[in-house]
Amino acid sequence: MVNKSRVALVACDSYDDAKVCEALKKGIGLIGGLTGIIKPGDKILLKPNVLIGSAPEKCVCTHPAVLKAAGEILMEAGAIVSCGDSPGFGTTAGSLKAAGLKQAADDIGMEIADFSTGTPVSHKDGLLVKHFTIAEAVMNADGLVSLAKMKTHGLCRMTGAVKNQFGCIPGFEKKQHHARMADPYDFGAMLVDLNMAIKPRLYIMDAVMAMEGNGPRSGKPRKIGALLVSTDPVALDAVACKIMNLNPEYVPTMAPGEKAGLGTYHDENIEVLGDKVEEFICKDFDVVRRPKEHATSGTARAYFKNLVSARPVIDKDLCTMCGICIKHCPVTPKAVDWLDGDKTSPPVYNYNRCIRCYCCQELCPEGAITIEDTFLGKLFSRAPI
């Protein structure tokens, strides 16, 4: 008999501190508790999703109440707890402060870890990537507990438990991985390799309020009213996909995650404990429901891809000409840049250079960049949106 991966799904209808703590304790208990996961004296790093410092009601980051509850529960178990993340830009401390997470950490005496410097790490068993530079704060901890946020994502369809560890790579090192992993399925395999190298001990997903639409920064809040807990991030993300009414096979981390032994995404191998998934499914959740296109090589294939692949588009009425999209474009020469050096007009794209990583869309502070299908792309879509 195959042992099933356990995912706890617990209703939590608000970010009231007491309710979140009670729901999280219940979820951890449903999967067997912290025995075998945390020992007294362990130095545990809590890794929330802090794409960029943003107010909690925007649903860009893991909510402070979830960080606080996780910290309190781990401290009660005897762990020495800190927290941190490497945001898309800005400092760890500044971003956590803007997101309300520093105040939550201060409330329970939790230190903020420094993610600014990295340590080279070898991972010889990686599916694709054998070497990473990982934040020293991660490597200096005895273990990591991942605090993901349920959101849509342009490149990966959804961002959750597996992708959350990308923030363990410091600063602009992340851009290099985007540049090298132009194919979304290679990028997914890289994320799996990263998780296998870090080996988080526990995964928690904040789905009290999720984000749909133009995620992971500029989408709309959507109430789900739940927390998810598991030691299997692939299974946790698969359950999140079910809630989002999204086929998990459309998420590039799923197949490599199962291949590497990180977890499973097939229903028959997952046991959902606590509340019923059916009670949370949002059939109209705003997410792209079709597979990602593979990257192409060669002039003709690249030309065809430009005709059919969804592309980032700038809304000139919303653009403030801040240049963040240009700064974070990982390719050289830039795929998005000022036209003839004119910084008084919105940047323009050269789609022949664009690798469709959507870093520009992900980090645009104004929500001025969306991912739009081309006319031919709509005709060639393999599944309905």
Secondary structure layout:
Layout: E1 5-11, H1 17-30, E2 43-48, H2 64-76, E3 80-83, H3 92-98, H4 101-107, E4 111-112, E5 118-122, E6 131-135, H5 136-140, E7 143-153, E8 157-159, H6 173-180, H7 184-198, E9 202-212, E10 220-230, H8 233-243, H9 254-260, E11 270-274, H10 299-308, E12 311-314, H11 324-328, E13 336-337, E14 348-349, H12 359-363, E15 369-372, H13 375-380
Helix pairs in contact: 1-2, 2-4, 7-9
Describe this structure in words.
There is one protein chain. The chain has 385 residues and is of the alpha/beta class. The chain is 29% helix and 21% strand. Strands 1, 2, 3, 4, 7, 8, 9, 10 and 11 form a 9-stranded mixed beta sheet that branches. It has a two-stranded antiparallel ribbon with strand order 5-6. Strands 12-15 form a two-stranded antiparallel ribbon. Helix 1 packs across helix 2 and helix 7 (184-198) packs across helix 9. The model has no long low-confidence stretch (mean pLDDT 93).
Which tags fit this structure?
385 residues, alpha/beta, two-stranded antiparallel ribbon, 13 helices, 29% helix
| Proportion in helices | 25-40%
The 3D shape can be described as: globular
Count the helices. How many? 13
Low-confidence spans: none
Major β-sheet profile: 9 strands, mixed
Q: Helix and strand string, N-terminal first?
A: EHEHEHHEEEHEEHHEEHHEHEHEEHEH
Strands, count: 15
Mean pLDDT: 93
What percentage of the residues does DSSP assign to strands (E)? 15-25%
Rounded radius of gyration (Å):
20 Å
In angstroms, what separates the terminal alpha carbons? Answer: 38 Å
